[in-house]
Design brief:
- This protein is an all-alpha fold and about 180 residues long.
- It folds into 2 domains: about 50 residues, Arc Repressor Mutant, subunit A; about 130 residues.
- Helix content is about 80%, strand content about 0%.
- The chain is built from 9 helices and no strands.
- Helix 5 packs across helix 9.
- It is elongated and about 60 Å long.
Length: about 180
Amino acid sequence: MKKQPQVTEQTRANLTQAFWELYLERPIEKITVREIAERAGYNRATFYLYFRDVYDLFEQLEDEILSQVRVLVDNRLLAGDTLDFSCHMGFIVGLAQRFDGYMPRLIASDPSFGERLKQIIAPLLDRFIIRDAGLSEPEQEVVREFYLSGLLGAISAWLSAPGSMSINRLIELIVAVVL
């Protein structure tokens, strides 16, 4: 019985990995439960023990990624009194790097993912950058969107070109040019 949670988690991970491989090849609408199950080495019934359908699997994966970003922002980045952009961006980019290969695709193909990610990161901007800028509410919204879209675009471009520059160089570049 002790091994059951480990087996369960491994099965879930295998199904998830099979989905990601297929998702990187083609749109979600063209992915079937049978393809995922076969690629992972299981039957369709096993898939349905974990997920209702392909979209449920996709939603759970997005929620897991966003949950990790939220924990990072809430517990680490918003906890201090100041924003060390270089350090904090390193945490965000490092997390994005953990999902390398998936993050650019999620940002590009699922607008709701990008918007949800922006909502999680926005409190950092509001607290440390926009708050003391003396801007009207419409101006704050424009500046917030500028920073958030630029950050996501930069991370996505960087992850799409592996080996083009180090994570430290990416952070230096953004800090030097944007801030």
